[in-house]
Design brief:
242 residues; alpha/beta; Metallo-beta-lactamase, Chain A; 6-stranded mixed sheet; globular; binds zinc ion; binds fe (iii) ion
Length: 242
């Protein structure tokens, strides 16, 4: 959207830092904090003063820069807060269905447990964007550290139930290794092969494969396709043929 700018940049080994800037209000949200110094450098270079952090879950590669950024900018930290003591510096504890305003734009929170027992995503409809942390990756799925496959399945359903054009900002660049797994179960699926070729070319040019979209993940993500009876039949037929 014209009045919201989103800046994505690599952080640590394979994380992404994300800054979301609302021109009208001047607010700038930092989506997770893999590397506080790098995030501050990027924000300062843009001339955007961070006003808040939106944390998706407690893992250190998502909250490690919280305190540095809070001390530097005096910002407000939003995050999942049912379990105490996990999000450094948290100010506003959020759960399923909570809403808050980002300038004039509502942000809607959904709980997506699976990777961790408490994981939330932030849907910013005004930017046609959802910040999904480590729940869903381009062609992949977050590791189940604390949750069950059933929980993760439900979480996937929430994210992939958003409007098709919604851009999904995941927190890591895992796409090419995810692609190898996806091809091992769904190789030959035209939408998948087309997407993998595109991602390989993008990575060769050094471009991020994030964001992806709801429409693309519904058509290519092996963890989502597992729920389609047609796909399961096809996978079984493939296996039998091997
Ligand atoms: Zn994580
Ligand atoms: Fe992570």
């Amino acid at each position: 959207m014209a009045d919201i700018d989103i800046h994505l940049f690599p952080c640590l080994n394979d994380n992404y830092g994300i800054l979301v800037h609302d021109r009208a209000s001047g607010r700038t949200a930092v989506i997770d904090t893999p590397d506080g110094e790098e995030i501050a450098r990027q924000a300062d270079a843009k001339g955007w003063r961070p006003t808040e952090i939106w944390n998706t879950h407690w893992h250190p590669d998502h909250t490690g820069g919280n305190i540095l950024l809070k001390e530097r900018y005096g910002l407000t930290i939003y995050g999942p807060g049912r379990v105490d003591g996990r999000i450094p510096g948290i100010d506003v504890k959020l759960g399923e269905g909570d809403r808050f305003d980002f300038g004039d734009h509502p942000v809607r929170v959904m709980e997506t447990p699976g990777h961790t027992e408490e994981h939330i995503v932030f849907h910013l409809e005004a930017a046609t964007a959802c910040f999904v942390g480590d729940t869903l990756f381009t062609l992949g799925c977050g590791r189940l550290f604390e949750g069950t496959p059933e929980q993760m399945w439900e979480s996937f359903g929430k994210i992939l139930g958003l409007p098709e054009e919604t851009k999904l900002y995941c927190a890591h660049e895992y796409t090419l290794s995810n692609a190898r797994f996806a091809q091992s179960v769904d190789g030959g699926l035209p939408a998948l092969e087309e997407a993998v070729a595109r991602y390989e070319a993008m990575r060769e040019r050094g471009e991020p494969t994030v964001p992806t979209t709801v429409a693309v993940e519904r058509a290519t993500n092996p963890f989502w396709l597992a729920g389609s009876a047609k796909e399961l039949g096809r996978r079984r037929a493939l296996k039998d043929a091997m």
